[in-house]
Amino acid sequence: MKINNVPIDLLLPSMLEATGMVLKIFFLTILFAVPLGFLVALGRRSKCVFLSGPIRVYQLIFRGTPLMLQLIFFMYAPYYLFDFSFGRFQACILAFVINYAAYFGEIFRGGIDSIPVGQFEAAKVLGYSKVQTFFRIILPQVAKCVTPAMGNELMTLVKDTSLAQVISVSELFNVAFNAGSRYFSTVPIIIAGIFYLIMNTIVEMTFKRLEKKLQYGGR
Amino acid sequence: MLVRAEGIKKSFNGTEVLKEISLGVEEGEVVAIIGPSGSGKSTLLRCLTQLETVDEGNIVINEKELVTMQKDKAVYAKSAIQHQIRMDTGLVFQSFHLFPHYSVKKNIMDPQIRVLKREKKEAEKIAGNLLAKLNLSDRADAYPNELSGGQQQRVAIARALALNPKVLFFDEPTSALDPELTGEVLKVIKELAKEKMTMVIVTHEMAFARDVADHVIFMDEGTIIEEGTPEEVFGNTEKERTKVFLKRYLENAWES
C-alpha cells in the first residue's frame, strides 16, 4: 500500500517500534523523576540553605537551559570530563529524568505549600508521626492539587521525547523524519503527528479520570 | 493537679508574648481563658499542646514533665515522653482543620487506627458512638466540605475525644461560626462539662464562660491580670483592666 509514493506497509512496523521507544522514555522518566521530584521539593523546602540552595541552583540550570542541550551534554560531556560514556539510551533517560525532576520538584513544592499549616498541626496534635502525616494526610491532598499541572507536564513529556533524536535515539520523530527525507514526502511526519496525538489523548483521558477519582465531597 | 504550668515565657522575634504565666487545672475542672486579641491566650494553649515550645518555664501534664528549667534553660522531655503527653491532651482548633480527603467517619477513625493502633472494628464502634452522641450519625459518610461550620467543629471535637484525652483544649472553638452555629457547638462543650471532662477553653463568649467554667482567667498583654470563679471575675471584678474589657465587651454585644 502506497500513499504519496510512501510504502505505508513497510514504514508502519518501524514507526510502531519507534513508538515503543517513546513509551519507554515516557514511563522510565515518570518512574524515576516523580520520586526524585518529591525529594527535590522536600529539599527545596528545607530550612537548611546548604540543602535548599544547591537544589535551587540545580533547578535553575535544568529549567533554564534547553533539554536538547542537556541531552547532548549527557551524551558527550562525560567522555571529555571523565573519559567515560553513557550508552545512547542511558544518556537519554538520564537527561529526561534530571530535567523533569527539576520541573516536578517545583510542582510538588507548590502543592505541599498549598496545604494549610493547620493540617500539619492537626496531625501533630492527634499524635501522627511525621511519616504518617506525610503519607496519610499531606500526600493525598498534594496529589489532588498537582494533578492538573502534572497532566500538563506529561503531555509535554510525550512530545519532548522527540528531542532524543539529537543523540540519534531512534524514537518516533527520528524515524518519521528520516523516512520523510528518504521518500520526499511529509506523509511519515503526519503519521507521526497522529501517533503523538493518540498517545496524548490517552494521557489526557487518564488524567481526567484521575481528577475525578481524587475528588472528594462537594468539590 | 492534671495540668500545671509555671513561669511560662515565650517570645516571637524579640516580642514577649507570654510573660511568666502560671496556671493549674484540676481533674474534671473547666477553665475559661478570656481576654482581648493578641493577649497570648492562643499562644499559651499552643505551648501546652506542643505546637510551640516555651522559652522558659515548667509544664507538667498528668504527672509527666513536659518541660523543666535546668540551669536557667528550658529542657524538654524525650520525644517518647512528649508523645505520651501529646496523647493525654487534645486540641480543638478555631478553624476545625478536619482532613478534607477523609469522610467524617474516617476523620474520627483514622487517628485511632494509626496512632492508638486500635482494631478497625473497635475504632468504627467508637466513631459511631461519638457521632450518635453529637447528633451527627446521618453525616458519617459526608466529607468535611459538605458540612456546616458547626457540624465540622462537632466532628473535630469527636475526632479529639476518640483518642480519650485526659484534658481537652479549645482554641476559640466558635470564633469562625455564626451565632446560630455557635450555639450547637457550645451545647456540646457544656454537655462534656457535665460529664466532668477536663477542659481549657479560650473563648470570646463571655456568657458561656460564665455559665460553664469553674475557673476564669483574664489575660492581657501576656500576663494573667485576674482569675477566680466566674462570680469573682464577672460579678466582683477587681482589676480596672478587666472591668474595661468586660464593659467594652458588653457594649459591643449590645451594638451588634
Q: In terms of structural class, how would the helical and strand content of chain B be classed?
A: alpha/beta
Give the % helix of chain A: over 70%
Flag low-confidence runs of chain A.
none
The low-confidence runs of chain B, each spanning 5 or more residues with pLDDT under 50, are none
Strand runs of chain B, count:
11
The rough form of chain B would be described as: globular
Structure description:
The complex is a heterodimer of chains A (219) and B (256). Chain A has 219 residues and is mostly helical. Chain A contains eight helices and two strands, in the order ββαααααααα. In chain A, helix 1 (8-45) crosses helix 4 (88-113) and helix 5 (117-126) packs antiparallel against helix 6 (130-160). Chain B is an alpha/beta fold and 256 residues long. Chain B has a six-stranded mixed β-sheet, with helices on both faces. Chain B has a five-stranded antiparallel β-sheet with strand order 2-1-4-5-6. In chain B, helix 6 (179-194) links the parallel strand 8 (167-171) and strand 9 (198-202). The N and C termini of chain B lie far apart (40 Å). Classes of the chains: A mainly alpha (219), B alpha/beta (256). At the A-B interface, helix 5 and helix 6 of A face helix 2, strand 7 and helix 3 of B.
Outline the fold blueprint.
The complex is a heterodimer of chains A (219) and B (256).
Chain A: E1 2-3, E2 6-7, H1 8-45, H2 49-64, H3 67-82, H4 88-113, H5 117-126, H6 130-160, H7 172-183, H8 187-214
Chain B: E1 3-12, E2 15-25, E3 30-34, H1 41-48, E4 56-61, E5 64-70, E6 73-76, H2 79-88, E7 89-92, H3 104-114, H4 120-133, H5 149-161, E8 167-171, H6 179-194, E9 198-202, H7 206-212, E10 215-220, E11 223-228, H8 230-235, H9 240-255
Parallel strand pairs in B: 3-9, 3-10, 7-8, 8-9
Antiparallel strand pairs in B: 1-2, 1-4, 4-5, 5-6, 10-11
Helix pairs in contact in B: 3-4, 3-5, 5-6
